[in-house]
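ok so i was messing around last nite and threw this chain in just to see what happens. nothing serious, just curious
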Amino acid sequence: MADKRDYYEVLGVAKGASDDEIKKAYRKAAKASHPDLHPDDKDAERRFKEINEAYEVLSDPQKRARYDQFGFNDPQMGGAGGSGFGGFGGFGGFEDIFDMFTGSGFGGRSSAARQNAPQRGSDLQYNLTLTFEEAAFGCKKEFKFQRNATCDACKGTGAKPGTQPQTCPTCHGTGQQRVTMNSPFGQVQTMRTCQTCGGKGKTIKERCTKCSGSGFVRVTRTVTLTVPAGVDDGQNCKTIPGEGEPGRNGGPSGDLYITCTVRPHKIFKRDRYDLYCDVPISFSQAALGGDIDVPTLEGKMPYTIPAGTQEGTSFRVRGQGIQQLRGSGKGDLYFTVHVDVPKHLSERQKDLLRQFEDSLKGGEYERRKSFGEQMKSYIRENAERFKEKFDKK
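result:
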């Protein structure tokens, strides 16, 4: 028991891995260690059995729960390698085991059946770039994108116009071949995808020159889209059914998903439906208060700030934000004022400021007054320590 590796380590997954992650890890590990696929690797069979043992336990919710609780010392399982640890229960028998290696991995009957069944086309995604205002107010946008379409020359058959695909002479239209494979359990017969027709059951003698036998051609599509007001950066603003890649074997087309990328604004920043910006004001405006111009998405608006407004004070203007995407209201506008201190003053301006400063008694500066009182208290409390320090010097 000491030489057994942890089942999570065997599959290379974390202890909290999902069932899908465990299944994907098992398939990858099993293919990498299958003895028939690695005949020169003497250790492949041992690893293969170890991988299947780990998967049988971790793929079963009850076995996995007991393994997480008891490890290899589960009394119900009789220890490591007991009746519950070490078979091939994860896939329901030998048929599924070989179907995985000769089917999903190498083209077996399940793969062939899926290949000839109707298949939905892939979805496409288009990234639509908008200005800040276009996203805020909504707009109409026309754009072009490319996708595949059924070839109009061969009608999707891939064969030269006037000809038709022929029944495959190897598999006689089934898309499958019976093969004999060596396995750890002896020789086993199974089905795999026909190597001649690729599982389609038909072959093309003369290919369509327009689509080179693929049955599809590249086309450019033009779409006119109404972008709703309030869409945000990274949001999917529209899904157009049937504008994705075409389906195969009569399957439906995929869809087109349109995602919006919103360019940043020079003034505003957005948080959901609220707007934020900075507004510079002069020293006199901060001290005296009064009307200032505040930017909005619809132009300037007057706003009265109170006297004694301090640097970094924020104000809220209701209803001047972004239109709610699925509602009738709007967000708010928040602006923060910053006192713009002039750098280049004339001598007369400097003299006037000095006179103004001299006219103050200090009580007008609340922060300075509070700070001064704190400084005096601090000096009094540490007077002896300061005196010793200066005496030493």
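not much to say yet. The first strand starts at residue 124 and ends at 130.
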